[in-house]
Every structure is written in structure tokens, then in C-alpha cells.
Amino acid sequence: MGRRASSVETMTFGRLRALNDGGTQRADFHVLAVIDAGPGSVTVDFHRHPLEDRSAVWIPPGAVHQWNDIADVTGHLVLFVPTAPVTHATRELAASPDPAAHWSIPDADWSFVDTARSHLLLEASAPPSGSRTELPEILLSALITRLHPPHAEARLAPAVFRSFRSSVEAHYRQHHDASYYARALGYAPRTLSRAVQQATGRTAKAYIVERIVLEAKRLLAHDRLTAARCADVLGFPDASNFSVFFRKATGMRPGAWQATVTTE
Fold this sequence. Notes:
The protein is built from 11 helices and 9 strands.
């Protein structure tokens, strides 16, 4: 592992293999991986993604992930706290609640990505100095910029939707109704619904339900919470109410879904 560089840390896939126990992980920092060569796979929030030659993976804080098959993967991981990026654009990308989990790096971009990564790795290997610098954060921001994550396009979404998305991320545990967000943001319900539909193809209510279900799955799969504890954390009156909600959204009761994840 590279030297702890303030809020940025680096690691090879060789080091990850030595540390990986095959179980699920849920970190409070970002994991950005640049894959030189595969094949392999990683599961992020219950979706498996291939680790292919010249590709990238972005795992945000809170996401449940599992390195399924990394025996032949080469490349590097960059671990960083949400406040590490220093440019406005890269901080917005880091703050996105739903970044792209995996994407291929075009051949035309590879040399720029590789150079940006090399600069960051070189800085991470430098001996500690007495003075604090922002070089690791600056070089991280350069790497993120060169990677062109697909969710960078989300910054072009309507302002109404961006405000709604941020508000849902902050309050979905307490507020489950679209009408709350319309009132809180000062929009007419129809205006809000139209903006969310335009940006996601889903209704505002469906977006909120999807976010609650994702967190419920994370709590069931990684934290191994019971339905009663999930109900408490996610703002439901009781376990029965939560179970009805979860079954309606997924087709399975919480305990049954949890059992399928355990046996995989």
C-alpha cells in the first residue's frame, strides 16, 4: 500500500489479493480502480461487473461490494475520502449518490489516464516531508478528470432533479413521500415529477422507493440486520410495515432475500 497521503491512499491489486477475504465490504471512503488487465469481476450493490483490460471501477462510500475474482487482475486502486478532490467538477462527481460502477477506458484516453495515475503513484511513494501539500489531492483530481466517468454527464441533468436527488440522499430514511420533497424544495409536485421522469425515466416515488430498497439490501446483506432493525433505521413504524414494503418492491420477504444472499 502506498504512503498515507492525507486523504488519498494507493494500493496494487496484488496487495488487495493479500487482504481480501472474499466477503462483502462496505467502506466510508471511495474506491477508484484502474484495471490494466483482467479478467476478473467485482459485485457492487448486488450487480456483478467484469474487470476487463483498460477499464475502471468506482465504488462510492456506503456501497456493498465484493471482489469476486481478482486472481489475474493487474492495476491499482485509489482510496480517498469524499472531500479529497480539489476541483469543483471532481468534487461534484465524488458527491454523486449513484456513480457509474464500471466503464471501459477508450484507447485514445488510455495514455492520459496511465500518465495521471503514474504521477499519483509516484507522489504516494515519496518519503514524508515536514510540510503538508495538496499534491495527492490535485493529482487525484487530474486522474478522475482523465477517466471521464460516465456519471459526469449527470451534472447536465436539470437543476430540479439534482436538488431532488441530493435531498432524497439526505432524507430518505425519514421521508418516503414525493410530496415532502416537492414542499421542501419549493416545487409544484407536477414540476418535480416531470423533472425526475425526464432525468431517470422513473416517477419521483419510484426513485425514492428504489433508494430505500437499495439501503435495505445493504443492511440485510452486509450488516445482517433483522427486518425489525431495518424498519427502525429506515423510518418504518414496525417490521411488518417494512416487510410489506420490501416484498412489494422486490417480490421477496426481507428474511428470504437475505438468505439468498448468504448462500451465494
